[in-house]
């Protein structure tokens, strides 16, 4: 158990990844998170932001342009891999062990997200943790044409992989932020969880409303069950 815990901390400790593995570590994490279902727990947003922080200041770990190039390439390749997995494996991938770890509720939300937003979900999902891992696979399973998927994949990959590191780069010049990287990481994780928490809350509220509506439909005006107050047909003569 300790070895599993240690592994989890090592692949989610964004400062450790950036300082110890550099661009190679960033590339592998982004590819796994966006291209492989088992990477749904990886910290793509916070990793990109902290990597952007480390490109600024007097002693940058690596140049910003190199970070952007690596992030864009592996984000796009990752989504393309997820799409291909969906095309090859089809629905069985949603019954795999990785899918069970993600959970039916999250997969259901991703399916609704893709169904309601269409191809634009490929772009928008980039900015929603876990959803961005599942949507490319759903695009492949749904039969979305490759020539249609690729442009949306590139647009979303460039936007996500550039906006977050550039924000980190410019904010890295703020002394308070530079001195409180750990606090920034916690805030980023919290912000990443907020959309999922809101969806969960909306789902629970909708479920209560649906249950109340269903209960009202089967209850009479005086609070009695309409099924028990219906007239009984006379016996056949």
Automatic annotation (TrEMBL):
Give me the ranges of the annotated region Disordered: 211-237
Under Pfam families, the record lists: VTT_dom
A GO cellular component entry from the record: plasma membrane
- Is the Membrane keyword given for this protein? yes
Keyword annotations of the record: Cell membrane, Membrane, Transmembrane, Transmembrane helix
Q: Where does the record place a coiled coil?
A: none
The annotated topology with respect to the bilayer is: Multi-pass membrane protein
Give start and end of each VTT domain: 42-169
TM regions (residue ranges):
21-42, 62-78, 149-171, 177-198
Question: Could you tell me where this protein is found in the cell?
Answer: Cell membrane
Q: Which family does it belong to?
A: Belongs to the DedA family.
- Full protein name: Uncharacterized membrane-associated protein
């Amino acid at each position: 158990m300790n070895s599993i815990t240690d592994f989890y901390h090592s692949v989610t400790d964004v400062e450790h990844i950036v300082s110890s593995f550099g661009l190679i570590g960033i590339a592998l994490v982004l590819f796994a998170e966006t291209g492989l279902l088992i990477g749904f727990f990886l910290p793509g947003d916070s990793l990109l932001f902290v990597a952007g922080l480390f490109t600024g200041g007097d002693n940058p770990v690596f140049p910003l342009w190199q970070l952007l190039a690596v992030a864009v390439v592996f984000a796009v390749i990752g989504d393309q891999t997820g799409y291909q997995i969906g095309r090859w494996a089809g629905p069985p991938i949603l019954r795999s062990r990785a899918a069970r770890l993600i959970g039916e509720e999250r997969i259901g939300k991703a399916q609704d997200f893709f169904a309601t937003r269409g191809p634009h979900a490929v772009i928008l999902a980039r900015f929603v943790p876990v959803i961005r891992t599942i949507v490319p696979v759903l695009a492949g399973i749904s039969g979305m044409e490759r020539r249609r998927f690729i442009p949306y994949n590139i647009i979303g990959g460039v936007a996500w992989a550039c906006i977050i590191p550039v924000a980190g780069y410019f904010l890295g010049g703020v002394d308070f932020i530079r001195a409180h990287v750990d606090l920034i990481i916690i805030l980023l994780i919290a912000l990443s969880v907020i959309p999922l928490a809101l969806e969960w809350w909306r789902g629970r509220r909708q479920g209560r409303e649906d249950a109340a509506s269903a209960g009202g439909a089967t209850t009479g005006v005086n609070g009695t069950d309409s099924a028990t107050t219906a007239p009984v047909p006379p016996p056949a003569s």
